[in-house]
Amino acid sequence: MRLSELDQSSDDEIDLDFDYWASDRLTDLCNGLQSKWGDHQLELSDQEWGELAAACDLPTEVAQSLKVAVVEEFSRDIFRLDGPLMIGTGNSAESRLVCRYHGIKYILQLFSTCIDELWSEDGVDYKTVVVSPHNDLDRDLAGCIQFIRQAMDELQEGSVLVCCNDGNSRSAAVILAYWLQYSDPDHSLQAAIEWYNQRRQGLTLDEGLTHLLEKYEMMAQVQDSPGKRKLMVGSPASPGKKIREQVCANISEFKL
Questions:
Q1: Average pLDDT for residues 111-135, to the nearest whole number?
Q2: Which residues pair with 125 in a beta bridge?
Q3: Which pLDDT band holds residue 39 (cuts at 50, 70, 90)?
Q4: Helix (H, G, I), strand (E, B) or coil at 214
Q5: Which of 26, 77, 199, 226 has the least CB density, counted as fewest CB within 10 Å?
Q6: Per residue in 51-69, pLDDT tens?
Q7: In sequence order, what DSSP letters do the residues of 15-79 get, joined into one string?
Q8: C-alpha distance from residue 91 to each of 39, 76, 193, 234 (Å)
């Protein structure tokens, strides 16, 4: 049963697969949940679940089934790190209800195989990166950071989700690189890790990701060094041109 067919279904045929709900009905459910949950997913009474069912134009008799279905959807691992920036496991991005509830407008997904960009028709912008076991984001990290940066700049409201299989390795590495590039004036990897650990437990960086982030930290620090900033404002014909070119050559050694 799909989308508009739901509205013609009888009570005992009601489909609680939210991925196929009509957009307006899904929005009604999200609005109802947000008004009752607020900032926390609180336990709701049977009466409140009945009110949610009614708000979605469902019979109150399905309130308990609605509760079970909603709770199952929100058991997925998704976490708000800071402002609109969220991190999660792969299945968090697969839930249309979860994405709509959190107002997710941009999804960066990092997986070993190509997966579907499920909610493009809902207006979600995607960047999908396929990472092989022998390419731990080496060639893709800069593009991932640029995607997050652009999303944060363009975002009027809503959230940006970064996800990978376990939600604490490649996705975390990308967010750490983004944070040390744009949020920490010292571009410190250690400070980025401390910032992450204060918000979410379970960070798992293998040797390859750690080495990659160390290279990125060095690159960010060199690019933002006082000497480089001073050289960059000189004219191309100035005596500092050769020095400036050498600085750029040094930076290119750290290119990801």
A1: 89
A2: 106
A3: low
A4: helix
A5: 226
A6: 999 999 999 899 999 999 9
A7: ---GGGS-HHHHHHHHHHHHHHHTTS-----HHHHHHHHHHTT--GGGHHHHHHHHHHHTTS-EE
A8: 22, 7, 24, 50
* Secondary structure class of 153 (helix, strand, coil): helix
- Look up tokens 């009888």; give the residue: 10
Spatial separation of the C-alpha atoms in residues 119 and 23, rounded to whole Å: 11
Question: What's the CA gap between 242 and 52, in Å, rounded?
Answer: 68
Which DSSP category does 240 fall into?
T
Within 8 A by CB and 6+ apart from 229, the residues are none
pLDDT in tens, 177-231: 999 989 888 889 999 999 999 999 999 999 989 999 999 999 888 887 654 433 3
Encoded amino acid at 138, one letter: D
**H-state helical runs in the chain:** 23-37, 46-55, 63-73, 96-101, 141-154, 170-182, 189-197, 207-223, 226-232, 241-252
- 31-40 long-range Cβ contacts below 8 angstroms, 24+ apart: 31/55, 32/56, 33/70, 33/101, 34/101
